[in-house]
Amino acid sequence: MLVMSVASLFGWIMAFENIPKTVAKGLISVLKTPSMFMVGIVLLMIIIGTFIDTLSALIILGPVLLPAANLLGIDPLHFGLILCMSLSFGVLTPPVGTCLFVASGIAGTTVEDTAHHVIPFVTILFGGTIILALFPDLILWLPRLTGYGG
Hints:
The protein has about 150 residues and is mostly helical. The protein has helices spanning about 1-15, 20-30, 35-50, 55-70, 75-85, 100-105, 110-135, 135-145. The protein starts with a helix and ends in a 5-residue tail after the last helix.
């Protein structure tokens, strides 16, 4: 809870200092199209997710990156799902690797052996995340059927 409190306070301070708008303009100047932006976000979140807890990263980075996604016309639901999927790599890879450590403990094997067997699943998750990042209609078709206006 302490980590969550500090992350929330940090997010509030960033919003108060108008950092999200500055970061959004900087990201858009580098990653000009929605496709480039989403692939860049996937790669950035994979790197960040391997070092920072998923929930803390969402609380800190979500409000910073969402304005950039909005400026590029990316649906917030699509952006949020891709953000969560990209950060989920962190629980499968060291050094955070919570699921990796739990799985190796349950299986009674070493973390290295478990990590070796996780590689195919991480590869499939990466491919699926990139495909969903590039083709938002694969995610949004069902919510749109229910009347979602995004």
